Amino acid sequence: MCACRVRTPNKIRSLLKVTGLAAGVFSAYSVCRGDEKFYNNVFMPIVRLIPPETAHDLAVLGVKWKLFRPPYQDTDRLRTRLLGMAFSNPIGIAAGFDKHGEAVQGLQLIGFGFVEIGSVTPEPQPGNARPRIFRLNEDKAIVNRYGFNSEGHDVVYERLRECREQQPPDQRVALGINLGKNKLSLDAIADYVQGVKRFGTLADYLVINVSSPNTPGLRTMQSKSTLQTLLTEVLKARASLPANEQRPILLKLAPDLSEEDLREIVDVVRAKACAVDGLIVSNTTIDRPATLRSVNAGQLGGLSGPPLKHRSTAMIARVYKLTEGKIPIIGVGGIFTGEDAYEKIEAGASAVQLYTSFIFHGPPVVPKIKRELDRLLEANGYASVQDAVGKGVDKYLA
Predict the structure, then answer these.
(1) Closest among 240, 56, 36 to 132, alpha carbons compared
(2) Predicted confidence (pLDDT) per residue in 109-133, tens digit
(3) Which fold does the domain 52-395 belong to in CATH?
(4) Its pathway (predicted)?
(5) Statement: the pTM of the whole predicted model exceeds 0.90
(6) 3-state DSSP call for residue 161?
């Protein structure tokens, strides 16, 4: 009788250990392979219990360690060309997730067709005080006021150089580097010029970011005269580099521009001295739609996610019309489904980028969006992404 009492708890403990081990193995497998139901029902709800910036840092670490490898083979229909480069698919990760260039190869394994890191400033700076990122769970949105927290050009350059040297050129994902200015800089234009010269050897394209709402005075650089001077100097800097270091340069725009401001910007970028190679539409918004339900809606900073979706899509359509489709556009803002991506492509975007949906749904959202986009392209008779660009522009004009 006594022996039985001893053995029974031992059996229970053994059973618990085996069950716990099995659950751990299953969870690890589900996380690594990107099981969508597991992420949505188990993993991401747990992640949302962690403070947002801590969760973000852990996510970057997990991607850096290449823990996430959702299986998906890009179809020929998804393959596209942009900025003179071939992309396996048109879905990229927006700047803001991998700020310091730590997880480029891991993001490639998740299935992104191109990766944009940053923003990177010339000198290291801490950004704004914490807390500086807020979840709007009821709206599946985010407000952030990071303020260009950056490890600086030198650290990011060395990290990216090592990363690129680990892969043959034909196996590397297309890499964009988003450039910012230091908060206390006395010469903002020189900061961007320095970035162009520093990263020309590593980037596949460079982004001039003058549209973040979280650095005082930054958005004023979108004004006509300042923008003319900025782009003229940036393009001169590029022209001074060896031919093999002259990378496409894109300009990232704010979604809060007036129609007059947008027309002036388009006039600037169509001038020969300021002719950038593409536009990214758009950054986060300072607007707060009345439909927001979260208590964090009133936090200062840039809003991203579904509340931005229609605004950014309409802006893509306006820019496509104003430029007569002659300047490539990368569309950003509230892309959670293949249909969201398809709408932006129809409105005039040649490729799109994710951020908030990746934060809310994790790596499985990438193959999900690609599958859905592929089906929509096929269903609407398009043989490629490029065939669909701008084909529905008029219905998205606000």
Answers:
(1) 56
(2) 999 999 999 999 999 999 999 999 9
(3) TIM Barrel (3.20.20)
(4) Pyrimidine metabolism; UMP biosynthesis via de novo pathway; orotate from (S)-dihydroorotate (quinone route): step 1/1
(5) yes
(6) helix
- Both tokens of 244, joined, read 């093999």
What pLDDT does residue 22 have? 47
Which of the residues are catalytic? 212
For CATH 3.20.20.70, the residue range(s) in the chain are: 52-395
Query: DSSP string of 37-92?
Result: HHIIIIIHHHHTTS-HHHHHHHHHHHHHTT---------GGG-EEETTEEESSSEE
Dist. CA 210–CA 227, nearest whole Å: 9
Written as one letter, the residue type at 37 is K
Distance CA 280, CA 291 (A): 26
Tokens of 147: 């303020």
The half-sphere exposure of 355 on its side-chain side, counting CA atoms within 13 A, is 28
Which strand (E) or helix (H) includes residue 385?
helix 385-388
Is residue 225 within 8 Å of residue 260, measured between CB atoms? no
How do residues 210-255 score in pLDDT, each as one tens digit? 999 999 999 999 999 999 999 999 999 999 999 999 999 999 999 9
